[in-house]
UniProtKB/TrEMBL annotation:
The keyword S-adenosyl-L-methionine does not apply. This is Prostaglandin F2-alpha receptor. The keyword Cell membrane applies. GO terms for biological process: adenylate cyclase-activating G protein-coupled receptor signaling pathway; inflammatory response; positive regulation of cytosolic calcium ion concentration; response to lipid. Its main location: membrane. It is a multi-pass membrane protein. Pfam families: 7tm_1. The lineage of its organism: Eukaryota, Metazoa, Chordata, Craniata, Vertebrata. It comes from Anguilla anguilla (European freshwater eel).
Length: 382
């Protein structure tokens, strides 16, 4: 009996120790999960706030510039840029609000979305606000390429009315891709992190489940390739005209400002959206594991930075800001370079004054004849 009671007491103590250990592990995992959720919510709030403020400031700058260049060749570029910033602003408002609502509801989709309606809207919003900026960037690159290489065709055929229609068609194409799974009764699915919805990846039942994510990725990669190609052609043409000092190419400063902005937009899109689009293709065509899910979540977070960095391209890469930055850089350079720069400027001004004086001999000759006459008359009167 004593042995039995001792063994029973030891078993009870071990079970209690196991339960305490289990409670501690559960509490630690709960605390870790709670900390991760708090960090995710904080990051979402910060990115949403910064994105809204940045896009609002960029929209104010673009609207002001569009009113000033309404009847010039830059108006169409500013129209598409304003449409891009408006798209990014609405994407931050809608997607950011949905993410915060999901975290506030503790990701329990069965409670707050039993009919799977919110997930469908969330997935369509992710596709629309993800594909629209990439397509608009490619359309802007094509428009600038036509404006630089074929200015006559651009001024006659691509009017502001046509540009507005093209902007609407770009939005309609992105909306069509976003609503195709709903129309085909292939609903969006909750992803592994349970914080967002997207195409069903890696669980294709038929060719439609494989077609929709591949269509999204191929369109995005094709838009990025078009932007790279058109911006390269535009940059080469502008550099050639600058080196040849072509007098027929007017308004090259505006062209260079726009091509700098397009190159920045293209770089941001390639860095932010390139990994996400490639990851979707890999997820759709290959088996996935836990590491693939983590890479997917990281790629989504990188893609959200596109909507934050896009407006800063128009805020910073303006002609006035670039001039100020160039003047600050010139003031901060070493004294020998500044002395050389002043010497060149003084030499240039001296040569200009010398040339002007050599080109005006008649003025000096008339003055030389008038002075003796006036002095002669003065002496005669005296």
């Amino acid at each position: 009996m004593e042995l039995y009671s001792t063994a029973q007491a030891a078993q009870i103590m071990s079970s209690n120790r196991t339960s305490l250990t289990g409670c501690r592990v559960t509490d630690r995992s709960f605390n870790t999960t709670l900390t991760q959720v708090e960090l995710s919510v904080t990051a979402s709030v910060v990115s949403m706030t910064v994105g809204i403020l940045s896009n609002t400031l960029a929209l104010f700058i673009l609207v002001k510039a569009y009113r000033r260049f309404r009847l010039k060749s830059k108006a169409s570029f500013l129209l598409f840029a304003s449409g891009l910033v408006v798209t990014d602003l609405l994407g931050h408002l809608i997607n950011g609000s949905l993410v915060l609502y999901v975290y506030r509801s503790h990701k329990d989709w069965t409670v707050f979305d039993p009919q799977h309606i919110l997930c469908g809207f969330f997935g369509a919003s992710m596709v629309f606000f993800g594909l629209s900026p990439v397509l608009l960037g490619s359309v802007m690159a094509v428009e600038r390429c036509i404006g630089v290489t074929c200015p006559l065709f651009h001024s006659t055929a691509l009017t502001s009315h046509h540009m507005k229609k093209l902007l609407g068609l770009t939005w309609l194409l992105a909306l069509l891709v976003a609503t195709l799974p709903i129309l085909a009764r292939r609903p969006y699915q909750i992803q592994h992190s349970r914080s967002w919805c997207f195409f069903p990846l890696g669980e294709a039942c038929d060719w439609l489940d494989l077609f929709f994510p591949l269509l999204f990725s191929v369109l995005g990669l094709l838009a990025l390739f078009t932007s790279i190609l058109c911006n390269t052609v535009t940059g080469v043409v502008l550099l050639r005209s600058k080196l040849r000092r072509d007098r027929h190419c007017k308004g090259t400063s505006h062209h260079f400002e726009m091509i700098c902005q397009l190159l920045a937009i293209m770089s941001v899109s390639c860095v932010c959206w390139g990994p996400f689009l490639v990851t979707i293709i890999l997820r759709s065509t290959r088996d996935h594991d836990q590491h693939t899910e983590m890479r997917m979540l990281l790629a989504v977070r990188m893609a959200t930075w596109n909507q934050i960095l896009d407006p800063w391209v128009y805020i910073l890469l303006r002609k006035a800001v670039l001039k100020k930055l160039f003047s600050v850089a010139a003031n901060l350079c070493s004294p020998p370079f500044r002395a050389l720069y002043r010497w060149n400027c003084s030499t240039l001004k001296g040569s200009m004054h010398t040339t002007a004086s050599l080109n005006r001999p008649t003025c000096f000759s008339t003055e030389s004849h008038n002075v003796p006459d006036s002095t002669g008359r003065a002496t005669s009167h005296t």
